[in-house]
């Protein structure tokens, strides 16, 4: 069975973004080392889950990104995978999608994801946005949390875990420290360990 992986950057004080969606604190310290890991992460999946805002931002960028033959090989590979992979978009307002291999999710999110997880293929990665991340956490649809903790505190913003309707008991399965101080923490739900081990 395929896994749903949430890969998300947060600040040291637990925010996914500033109060108005600001991500400058993240992009200012991104480096090649993180980029290499992000590319390997992308190689291990074949489907991307996105909310409306994340979709529109990425759809405006990736189709034209790194198309110059002189672009860095890894950058070109990342762009090619982003454009080629299946992208499932969760939105109540969008009616059409223009980015290659994109489709709107059905209205029943749980059914959509359970069906998707049973299909053949690699794992599935989620990059946001905020609303769909909250929904997936609430519905218990995330199998693995990959939390990139950035060495910055911003004081206010949009938290990763907000309005939880139940306690989440997580088990750390891996940790990695990058040279810029970012720490990547991989967690699974403790009560999902058996399921994880038998897949």
TrEMBL record:
Residues 2-184 form the Bacterial bifunctional deaminase-reductase C-terminal domain. It comes from the Bacteria. PANTHER family: 2,5-DIAMINO-6-RIBOSYLAMINO-4(3H)-PYRIMIDINONE 5'-PHOSPHATE REDUCTASE (PTHR38011:SF11), DIHYDROFOLATE REDUCTASE FAMILY PROTEIN (AFU_ORTHOLOGUE AFUA_8G06820) (PTHR38011). This is Dihydrofolate reductase family protein. It comes from Danxiaibacter flavus.
């Amino acid at each position: 069975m395929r896994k749903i992986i949430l890969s998300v950057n947060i600040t040291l004080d637990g925010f996914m973004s500033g109060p108005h969606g600001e991500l400058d604190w993240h992009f200012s310290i991104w480096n090649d080392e993180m980029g290499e890991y992000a590319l390997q992460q992308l190689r291990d999946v074949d489907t991307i889950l996105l909310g409306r805002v994340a979709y529109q931002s990425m759809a405006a960028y990736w189709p034209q990104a790194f198309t110059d033959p002189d672009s860095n090989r890894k950058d070109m590979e990342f762009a090619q995978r982003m454009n080629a992979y299946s992208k499932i978009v969760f939105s109540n307002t969008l009616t059409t999608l223009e980015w290659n291999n994109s489709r709107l999710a059905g209205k029943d999110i749980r059914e959509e994801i359970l069906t998707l997880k049973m299909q053949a293929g690699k794992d599935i990665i989620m990059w946001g946005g905020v609303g769909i991340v909250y929904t997936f956490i609430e519905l218990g649809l995330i199998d693995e949390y990959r939390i990139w903790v950035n060495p910055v505190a911003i004081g206010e913003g949009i938290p990763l875990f907000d309005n939880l309707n139940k306690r989440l008991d997580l088990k750390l399965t891996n940790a990695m420290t990058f040279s810029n101080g970012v720490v990547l923490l991989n967690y699974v739900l403790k009560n999902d360990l058996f399921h994880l081990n038998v897949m």
